[in-house]
Design goal:
With about 230 residues, the chain is of the alpha/beta class. The protein is built from 6 helices and 10 strands; from the N terminus they run βββαββαβαααβαβββ. One of its GO terms (molecular function) is ATP hydrolysis activity.
């Protein structure tokens, strides 16, 4: 489904990624772990096309994302990828339902259909009775579930999560990871999750360990260029 091959990222003389390759299959939960500064978030940003590699390629299904530019890239990212961050990045003036709808509206989907799906997702995530509440009226765990619903609104091929439990207490963190597992099982949703949480990372299907800008134990030549969905 998603394949990245030999990714590097340099900032002047600073080599943050040093030839990282990753493959993720549909319906898989993959966590990326490692110490601070190992390059985890940088890798996630490259996989999600939020940043561009110095060299290497990222493919999603049969599309070479490194060849897409400008509006074409932004449109592809909005339609095929979802994002969850440590801080929820919800717009405070909008309700939970409205926040969830935003990527669907940007994609040009009929508003009634977007609202219907947003309500379905919030109900699925246990927030059906909170859909009209604004972010400051929701708990941290509830806000993060709204962010999850927003990431899912366009039925993305893959969801990228950068420290999604980093701002949650242990109870809400466990519940969020369990939610990812339920979404994988119910919708065959694919996740790549960057996390420092050593308790929760083993709940994923596979852990990738990064150190000093490289993937530990990786043999680049062993990876195929494209993995079918």
């Amino acid at each position: 489904m998603l394949t990245a091959r030999n990714l590097t990222k340099n900032y002047s003389n600073l080599h943050v990624l040093k030839g990282v390759s990753v493959s993720v299959s549909a319906g898989e939960i993959v966590t990326i772990v490692g110490s601070s500064g190992a390059g985890k978030s940088t890798l996630l940003h490259l996989l999600g096309t939020l940043d561009t590699p110095t060299s290497g390629e990222v493919w999603l299904n049969d599309v070479n994302l490194t060849l897409l530019k400008g509006n074409a890239l932004a449109d592809f990212r909005n339609r095929h990828m979802g994002f969850i961050f440590q801080f929820h990045h919800l717009l405070p003036e909008f309700s939970a339902l409205e926040n969830v709808c935003i990527p669907g509206f940007i994609a040009g989907v009929k508003k009634s259909a977007v609202k219907e799906r947003a309500a379905f997702l919030l109900e699925t995530l246990g927030l059906g009775n909170r859909k009209d509440h604004k972010p400051n009226e929701l708990s941290g765990g509830e806000q993060q579930r709204v962010a999850v619903a927003r990431a899912l609104i366009n039925t993305p091929d893959i969801v990228m999560a950068d420290e999604p439990t980093g701002n949650l207490d242990s109870k809400n963190a466990r519940e969020l990871h369990q939610l990812f597992i339920e979404l994988r099982d119910k919708f065959r949703q694919t996740f790549i999750i960057v996390t420092h949480n050593e308790e929760l990372a083993p709940l994923s299907d596979r852990q990738l360990v990064m150190k000093d800008g490289r993937m530990v134990g990786q043999e680049i030549d062993d990876l195929p260029l494209i993995i079918g969905k």
